[in-house]
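Hypothesis: this fold can be encoded by more than one sequence.
Test: take the structure tokens below, design a sequence, compare later.
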């Protein structure tokens, strides 16, 4: 996803300079073990060759040293990893006046006190910590929740389908395509994590629900989420090889329940919910009268019931996964810091 972001910056950089007077200068690019730094700027159109020739060995401590050492005014650190060591650097960067844009969910969904500390520190230092793409890729979910709360509204209930992977699986499931095959298809088509059990466990959805709930003003942690597994626990306790070998044993049961739901005019959706502070995630059967029924592909959707949007909840829907839309969401966060 980081590569897609660089591509988008390369495509848009000249236009932003001409129409907005904004110059975007990339001064560092880091991968897991190597990084390239150049205070004068790295060409986003040809960075790969530069990276091959001039990158250095890197770890979180060295990354911190290099970023702070450049001491660049009006700078933004962008984290497109899922690395706890990188997320642990946010406080130092913010404390030194560097804004942080994170696709990484760890800081926003982890320890509540750390989450609040980063919020307060960014406010005191006059910089921003933004993480819109933590939930719904490029969909404006977190920003909308912030706008509602900042304008005096109160969010009473959230109902959401937040896993593009699980939505793909249950939309693809049919009499001709058994459950085990849909999981394999999700992996092969890049919708799931390399080990799809991360998606099947619902843990990623739990993290997303916690983030949204915190942004809505609820003091919650992942331990507060009631999770309902739809796959037996032993499928998560075994090796990945054993998991794939055992997975077809679930096909008959899923097909029987799928046929029953189809006869009732219902479909499966993996739903995350915050109902007045009570958090839960689990597989739900929804009828054709529900907004979630027609959700196709790997899309995400969220319904927000608030004091103002009460009889008719606010609905946000669209692509909730994919490198391009996620990169675009990160780019939008960068632009909001630039105030254009």
């Amino acid at each position: 996803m980081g590569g897609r972001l660089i591509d988008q910056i390369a495509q848009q950089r000249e236009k932003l300079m001409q129409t907005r007077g904004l110059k975007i200068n990339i001064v560092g690019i880091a991968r897991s073990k190597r990084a390239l730094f150049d205070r004068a700027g790295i060409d986003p159109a040809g960075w790969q060759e530069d990276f091959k020739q001039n990158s250095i060995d890197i770890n979180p401590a060295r990354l911190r040293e290099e970023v702070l050492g450049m001491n660049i005014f009006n700078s933004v650190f962008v984290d497109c990893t899922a690395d706890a060591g990188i997320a642990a650097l946010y406080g130092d960067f913010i404390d030194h006046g560097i804004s942080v844009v994170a696709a990484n969910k760890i800081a926003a969904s982890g320890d509540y006190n750390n989450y609040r500390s980063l919020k307060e520190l960014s406010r005191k230092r006059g910089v921003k910590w933004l993480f819109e793409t933590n939930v719904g890729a490029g969909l404006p979910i977190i920003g909308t929740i912030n706008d509602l709360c900042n304008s005096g509204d109160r969010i009473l209930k959230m109902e959401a389908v937040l896993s593009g992977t699980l939505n793909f699986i249950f939309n693809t499931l049919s009499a001709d395509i058994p459950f085990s095959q849909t999981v394999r298809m999700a992996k092969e088509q890049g919708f799931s994590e390399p080990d799809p059990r991360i998606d099947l466990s619902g843990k990623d959805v739990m993290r997303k629900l916690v983030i949204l709930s915190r942004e809505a003003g609820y003091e919650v942690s992942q331990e507060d989420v009631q999770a309902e597994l739809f796959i037996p626990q032993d499928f998560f306790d075994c090796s990945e090889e054993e998991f794939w070998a055992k997975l077809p044993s679930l096909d008959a049961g899923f097909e029987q329940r799928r046929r029953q739901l189809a006869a009732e005019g219902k479909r499966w959706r993996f739903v995350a919910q915050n109902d007045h502070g009570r958090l839960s995630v689990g597989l739900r059967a929804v009828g054709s009268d529900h907004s979630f029924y027609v959700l196709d592909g790997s899309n995400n959707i969220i319904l927000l019931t608030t004091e103002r949007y009460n009889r008719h909840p606010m609905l946000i829907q669209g692509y909730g996964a994919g490198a391009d839309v996620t990169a675009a969401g990160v780019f939008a966060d960068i632009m909001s810091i630039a105030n254009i």
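Residues 2-20 form the longest helix (19 residues). The chain has 16 helices and twelve strands.
Hypothesis status: open.
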